[in-house]
Design a protein that fits this description.
single chain, 455 residues, alpha/beta, 9-stranded mixed beta sheet, 7-stranded mixed beta sheet, 10 helices, 31% strand, globular
Length: 455
């Protein structure tokens, strides 16, 4: 996916130049990396809002218990006053020349620390309000157990306002075990703030008060709306504006691919690999281009969220999610080289994170009681791109949709696909405005060398 929880510091430290200038520059850089692989196709660009675009923000935290005297009377007792500061830290890379090898090596030099007030421009309106609420409550006497050994705080909201209009989950991180009284203080913080949930995290422990996920609603230009459960501590796209734009772009491209359809509707299904919590899956299942969508995801917690999202959006008849590693799924289940795939294996919808123990899941047939017929595959891999087995397999499908957060890995994979597929369209999505990061979406279709039996 595009971003991990231990995300690159560069996402936070935005370029102060005009957004259009930064976007033009990084799009040009990405295009130069991909130019040969794109086979002459000129990418489009989809910009992001310049401010208030981020629905998830994590900060380091410092807590102080300061003693002060209101006057200087001899017998006066010092008053303890709590103070909590939020900040970002960036390690600056410096280059050294090794005296032994004469090779240049990078090392981390002194850190830059940036203290954050309530006006953090990239934070969404809901996160900004949550930060103010946090500051007003965390210094209370009853919140002392929440402050002890606190090292970081994460706010995860939605495009809606703070509760009750929208959801807000706050996670507190600790470098020591949480103290006695933590849960009681967290419950009071939750009740006072109105937050959806409070999560405490220390090494080897996790305590949840309330709900540990938010429900985001994405609206599309055709009037459709979809609800997405986003779990605390796991991947979800922090820029919901561009997440919605990407999904709508995918739906439009799928409907325009010219797949064979009968007068009564579509005749083929979609295979989606690395589907996460189903961010793309829900809308694609309802866009009218496919009979069914089969999603594959390795993370058991994201599979749970995807199942919840299917239920919330009433898509049980057209969506199925299974838990499996991509390479293993390809090598063990999709062994038939034809377009019509028959599944004889059994895979777990959720095996609790144990890949050696799976619950049985019927993936032999779709909801119509028929074999899946895949003409199209969607892949959204991590930064490393696709493994060799998956590359070999997806060549079998006439249409390939590829979402990438790494232009170098994408360029490599597009070249590996070029013997059988040609690029139809490419668009850059600015998920992280005023930073070097850019997401790329590509549509490919079989060229003259492609055949349904191609291996």
């Amino acid at each position: 996916m595009a971003e991990k929880e231990d995300e690159d510091d560069e996402i936070w430290f935005v370029d102060s130049r005009p957004m259009e200038e930064v976007l033009k520059e990084k799009a040009a850089n990405a295009h130069s990396i991909l130019e040969d692989a794109l086979q002459g196709v000129k990418p489009g660009i989809y910009p992001s809002p310049t401010e208030r675009w981020r629905q998830r923000c994590r900060f380091y935290a410092e807590s102080f218990e300061r003693k002060s005297l209101q006057s200087h009377e001899p017998n006066e007792t010092a008053e303890t006053r709590a103070e909590v500061k939020l900040f970002l830290r960036r390690k600056r890379k410096m280059l050294d020349v090794s005296p032994e090898t004469n090779e240049t090596e990078s090392r981390h030099a002194n850190q830059q620390t940036y203290y954050i007030d309530n006006n953090f421009p990239i934070a969404s309106a809901s996160v900004s309000k949550a930060m103010k609420i946090f500051r007003s409550l965390i210094t209370a006497d009853w919140a002392y157990p929440l402050r002890v050994a606190m090292s970081a705080v994460n706010f995860h909201g939605t495009m809606a306002d703070v509760p009750p209009e929208g959801d807000m989950v706050m996670s507190l991180f600790y470098h020591e075990p949480m103290t006695e009284g933590w849960r009681e203080a967290a419950e009071k913080f939750k009740a006072t703030s109105g937050f959806t949930g409070i999560v405490g995290r220390a090494k080897g422990s996790r305590i949840v008060c309330g709900r540990d996920y938010v429900i985001e609603t994405l609206a599309f230009s055709n009037g459709d709306q979809f609800k997405y459960a986003q779990l605390e501590g796991h991947f979800s796209n922090p820029n919901s504006h561009i997440a919605a734009a990407t999904v709508e772009w995918l739906c439009n491209k799928c409907k325009s691919l010219g797949m064979s359809q009968s007068p009564t509707g579509p005749e083929s299904d979609l295979l989606e690999m690395y589907c996460g919590n189903g961010n793309h899956t829900m809308a694609l299942a309802k866009c009218g281009a496919f009979r069914q969508v089969l999603g594959v995801e390795i993370n058991s917690k994201l599979v749970e969220m995807a199942q919840l999202n299917i239920a919330m959006n009433d898509l049980k008849d057209v969506c199925k999610i299974i838990r499996a590693p991509s390479a293993k799924f390809v090598s063990k289940i999709l062994h038939n080289g034809s377009r019509r795939q028959r599944y004889n294996g059994k895979w777990g919808v959720n095996d609790g994170g144990n890949s050696d123990k799976v619950e049985e899941a019927d993936v032999t047939h779709n909801a119509f009681g028929e074999d899946y017929v895949f003409h199209t595959v969607l892949v959204d891999p991590p930064r490393a791109g696709l493994d060799e087995r998956t590359i070999r397999h997806i060549k079998r499908y006439q249409n390939i949709l590829y979402i990438s957060c790494n232009p170098y890995a994408l360029g490599r994979d597009l070249k590996l696909l070029s013997p059988t597929h040609r690029v139809l369209e490419c668009t850059f999505f600015d998920h992280f405005p005023r930073t070097p990061h850019l997401e790329t979406a590509v549509v490919l279709t079989g060229n003259d060398s492609w055949t349904p039996q191609h291996k």
